Amino acid sequence: MKKIGLITSGGDAPGMNACIRAVVRTASLNDMEVTGFYRGYEGLLENDNVGLTRYDVRNIIHRGGTFLKTARSSEFRTKDGRSKASSIIKSHGIEGLIVIGGDGSFMGANLISMEHGIPVIGCPGTIDNDLFGTDYTIGYQTAVDTAIGAVDNIRDTAASHNRLFFVEVMGRDAGLIALRTGIAAGAEGVLIPETPTDLNRLVNYLKTDFKKKRRSGIIIVAEGDSEGGAYEVAKKVQNEFPNWETKVTVLGHIQRGGKPNGFDRILASRMGHGAVLALREGRNREMIGISGGQLVHVPLDHAIKHNATISPYLLELVEALS
Question: What pTM was estimated for this model as a whole?
Answer without folding.
Answer: 0.93
